[in-house]
Design brief:
The first copy, chain A, is built from twelve helices and twelve strands. Chain A is an alpha/beta fold. Chain A binds a DNA duplex through α2 and α4.
Chain lengths: ~325, ~325
DNA sequence: TTGTACGCGTTATCAT
DNA sequence: ATGATAACGCGTACAA
């Protein structure tokens, strides 16, 4: 059975409200009775009921974390960052996966559980639920992506710049026929990267042929299939750039299977700098995304919005990407 | 402002309790008033307050998930499995990381939040908190490891068998001088695997030299350093087996760096079959651990314990490992 | 079939 | 410095 504040009151010979004050060190309470209460609480093994507390305080100290595809290790560090900061600031996190496009059900659950705010780890542009929340003034922070048309608080990376730098690097290495593996229409990150890619080509006076762009859906499989199509073209592209490392590795898989060599026959680039990309033999040139930091700053931002509501200029934190040059692009340091 | 059951009652011209019954379809309620209430609720945008509900029901429909090192992608799929099942069964999950050895603080938070049960994704043998919980009859399910001395509900893999099969495979390929990279003392999984390793050697009449065993702490770095030491021995071991793929990849990194070839100069084996292990060029021979399934079954088991308490024979679900033979062991299919 | 009254465990307000 | 009281939002036994 649960030990409640009442039983402590009885044991210590005081009223429940005094116990509440003593344990929460609010208001005045004589240090002597304080002791008695503390002792009784310890003796009985008292554990405050956060539910009851949240109910009366109208604040749960809980934040909802929506992650699309939890099984995708890309999100591991994001979750870690969020968790660490949240814990430090006294918040617990309720984790849900965002498989559905609108996120209707997930958000509903979170709101019913009275979360104080929501962090969304990969909202699609089709997500109207987030839109509504924002309109109601409910604290929401987006990670990695924005919702076009709505100014929402978010922590993102400068995807366009990232893509520009990466593409530019390949161009400088002499590549003029670059295949591009696009992510997903509904993700602003994908569009931003593509924009950066095009810009780099344009600045170098290279015309982009439409058939050099394939969609990969952000998955390993998608990268594999996209590479299949791109490498069937003639003349073959001399380099492939994928919208994330996952797809780049999928492409790599295909390239290896048909016996081509990276980077001799096909150079390869990606985005994110997931752990795989660095290991011997893979050594993928990519753009590092500070995932842990993104999660951590997202949590900081959300908590700030929760605790200082109203004075809400929208904050959009833009992290700078970092080009990581490895063997797959053919560059010899 | 929150829309409560009272406001619906007022809008529909009934009492709060009637609304409660209508929305929860308990007890009798005329279908006509039912309609009125439903309509009012929808019109006002009613959202039940799970906190209040949990308080009175004395059940939160929430489970705590403790994961050591969330940023370790090994746990991604476990989390995914737990999340999926929990959601389907109407439970939310509160995620905490288990950095501290005893897990004292994490568990305290979870209990205060009134979780109905706890899933622990990697309890160390030093964890006395879990021990206490179990003693109190609180629903707890362990994943991947057991606590020696206490019979707890858990979902594990047959680590000993896994190690036996893997080692045996190497022995059959002709290796007699095997280096072993041990995980972590506090993890029963590590000890079990080591036991399987030794057994395989013994059955083959190979004596185990102590210096052929190094500790790797389950991390990439640890694997790297262990390989450093093991490969400095002379004669050099012809094969290395690591307690998990992470360490195996660390070892691989070192092997590559000093210019040795896998498997020609050194064969390599691991455990877990994480995604990396399968990619071209790595192709690590390993033993697959069904992580998603482990999480999913763990959640099923815990919910079962929560909903049918008392009739508690301890259930220990043992999943069978699966040997995955790839290039790194030198076997030519 | 519906309403009344109370309790879940806690905190906050206002007396004392 | 402490205690009585009400309230947070909901569920339920009991009465009507």
């Amino acid at each position: 059975m649960q030990v409640t504040i009442k039983e402590i009151a009885a044991a210590a010979g005081v009223s429940p409200s005094t116990v509440s004050r003593a344990l929460g060190n609010k208001g005045y309470v004589k240090s002597e009775t304080m002791e008695r209460i503390r002792a009784a609480a310890a003796a009985l093994g008292y554990r405050p009921n956060a539910l009851a507390r949240s109910l009366v305080r109208r604040k749960s100290n809980t934040i909802g974390l929506i992650i699309p595809e939890i099984e995708n290790p890309f999100y591991s560090e994001i979750i870690s960052g969020v968790e660490r900061v949240a814990t430090k600031r006294g918040y617990s996190i309720i984790l849900v996966s965002g498989y559905s496009e609108t996120g209707e059900a997930e958000v509903k659950t979170l709101l019913e559980r009275q979360v104080d705010g929501i962090i969304h780890g990969g909202a699609y542009t089709t997500n109207t639920t987030i839109f509504r929340l924002k309109a109601e003034g409910f604290p929401v922070v987006l990670l990695g992506r924005r919702l076009p048309g709505v100014e929402t608080d978010c922590v993102i990376v400068n995807d366009r710049l990232a893509a520009y730098q990466l593409t530019n690097h390949f161009i400088k290495l002499g590549h003029r026929r670059l295949g591009y593996i696009f992510g997903k229409d509904e993700s602003t990150g994908s569009s931003e990267k593509f924009a950066g890619f095009r810009q780099a080509l344009a600045d170098a006076g290279i015309e982009l042929e439409p058939q050099l762009v394939e969609k990969g859906n952000l998955q390993f499989e998608g990268g594999y299939r996209a590479a299949q199509k791109l490498l069937a073209l003639s003349p073959r592209p001399t380099a492939l750039i994928a919208g994330n490392d996952f797809m780049a590795l999928g492409a790599r898989q295909y390239v290896c299977e048909i016996g081509l060599r990276i980077p001799a026959d096909v150079a390869l680039g990606g985005f994110d700098d997931i752990l795989w990309s660095s290991i011997q033999g893979v050594e993928l040139t990519t753009v590092a995304v500070p995932r842990y930091k993104m999660g951590a700053m997202g949590a900081e931002l959300l908590i700030k919005k929760i605790e200082k509501p109203g004075q809400g200029e929208v904050e959009q934190i833009v992290l700078e990407p970092k080009l990581i040059i490895r063997r797959s692009c053919g560059y010899q340091g």
